[in-house]
């Protein structure tokens, strides 16, 4: 059985999130990517607590493509250390998962 995942990354601008989402879909590394925001993030960076408005990108793909998606995000992302995390898609409608599978390589 194929394994599906949702990858999330955040960017400082909507344009950066759009660039990443569009590239991944065009390259058939993801079936879709939603962009949400702005969101407020609080985090520690280089010993300091920071806050920033960011854009959240949720990317749907197969687990086997994670390494390629990870590399693509790092290539396109302006952050020194971008958030790239994944959660498994444990269940989904048969039709949605079939569509997802048809739209990625």
Mean pLDDT: 97
The structural class is alpha+beta
Tell me the span between the first and last alpha carbons.
Answer: 16 Å
Order of helices and strands: EHEEHEH
Description:
The chain is elongated and about 45 Å long. It is 32% helix and 40% strand. A hairpin with a 2-residue loop joins β2 (32-45) and β3 (48-62). It has a 4-stranded antiparallel beta sheet with strand order 2-3-1-4. The model has no long low-confidence stretch (mean pLDDT 97). It has helices at 14-26, 66-76, 94-103; strands at residues 4-11, 32-45, 48-62, 85-89. It has one domain (4-103): 2-Layer Sandwich (Alpha-Beta Plaits).
Label this structure with key terms.
Alpha-Beta Plaits; alpha+beta; 105 residues; single chain
Give the structure's gist in a few sentences.
This protein is of the alpha+beta class and 105 residues long.
Write the layout of secondary structure elements.
Blueprint: E1 4-11, H1 14-26, E2 32-45, E3 48-62, H2 66-76, E4 85-89, H3 94-103
Antiparallel strand pairs: 1-3, 1-4, 2-3
């Amino acid at each position: 059985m194929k394994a599906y995942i949702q990858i999330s990354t955040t960017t400082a601008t909507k344009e950066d999130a759009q660039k990443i989402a569009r590239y991944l879909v065009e390259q058939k590394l993801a079936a879709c990517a939603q962009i949400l925001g702005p969101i407020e993030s609080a985090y520690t960076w280089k010993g300091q607590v920071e806050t920033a408005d960011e854009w959240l990108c949720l990317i749907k793909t197969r687990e086997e493509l994670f390494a390629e998606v990870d590399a693509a995000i790092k290539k396109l992302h302006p952050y020194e250390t971008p958030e790239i995390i994944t959660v498994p898609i444990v269940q989904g409608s048969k039709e949605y998962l079939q569509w997802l599978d048809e739209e990625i390589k």
